[in-house]
Specification:
The chain is of the alpha/beta class and 238 residues long. The chain is built from 7 helices and 11 strands.
């Protein structure tokens, strides 16, 4: 069964409203879907899970799709098993992965997506679609049982990717430096794809596309960094 994925770097871009930059791809992913299950586990503060679930509800209502939070099911794994489609929102990737495992949702979501259920993620929700969460930008505010993620794509992701130094006087490591450090360890052989905030990955019918206005950067152990322009077929990474 072919996977159907939409992995968005950021739920918002500068000057846009929630998911407005990704709506054409959202429509394509969710053709025929009437009910979407939203996973709010990544949000560590500011919003309750109920409040976070309300954020995407109005957007999907305009598409004729009803949203229900996965935590609102009496049995969370059963809610995942019965879902037509899954959307995992952004926040803290470590907290998200911990709660996916703690609630028993992780193996059920993984199996359903591998069977063809549409999967959408933004930010942390995109991070967990890769092989591990080891290249997230988030602070490890909790310690999940493992860093291993769903493995829907055969590489790691780095959403919100910003190349170079933000300020000339900044003396800390750049995003490139951090990812190169990851690949310095012999065991970290998986590629890492840095995607900017206006970009996303779409996997439909076995074809992986980079969509957006800005290039992505592919990092590979022992090889030069490779800039990839939008529209390039990335299926070889699968």
């Amino acid at each position: 069964m072919q996977k159907s994925l939409l992995l968005v770097s950021s739920s918002r871009t500068h000057g846009d409203t929630y998911l407005s930059h990704a709506l054409p791809q959202v429509r394509e992913l969710l053709v025929g879907v009437q009910t979407l299950v939203f996973v709010p586990f990544a949000r560590p503060g500011g919003l309750t899970w109920d409040e976070y679930t309300e954020v995407p509800r109005s957007v999907f209502a305009e598409l004729g799709i009803q949203v229900k939070g996965i935590h609102q099911f009496d049995n969370i794994p059963q809610g995942a098993a019965e879902a037509e489609a899954i959307f995992i929102g952004g926040g803290n990737t470590f907290l998200l992965l911990q709660d996916l495992y703690a609630t028993g949702a992780f193996p059920v979501i993984q199996e359903r997506v591998l069977q063809g259920m549409p999967y959408m993620g933004t930010s942390a929700g995109s991070n967990v679609a890769g092989l591990t969460i080891s290249t997230t930008n988030d602070m490890p505010i909790v310690y999940p049982p493992t860093f291993e993620a769903f493995g829907f794509v055969n590489f790691n992701l780095n959403p919100h990717f910003i190349p170079g130094k933000l300020l000339p006087e900044h003396k800390g490591e750049t995003r490139e430096d951090r990812i190169h450090e990851f690949h310095h360890l012999p065991r970290n052989t998986q590629p890492v794809l840095g995607i900017r905030e206006d970009s996303m990955l779409s996997l439909q019918k076995g074809k992986l596309d980079l969509i957006g206005q800005s290039p992505a950067v592919l990092f590979r152990q022992g090889r030069p960094d490779l800039e990839i322009e939008p529209g390039v077929d990335l299926s070889k990474l699968l």
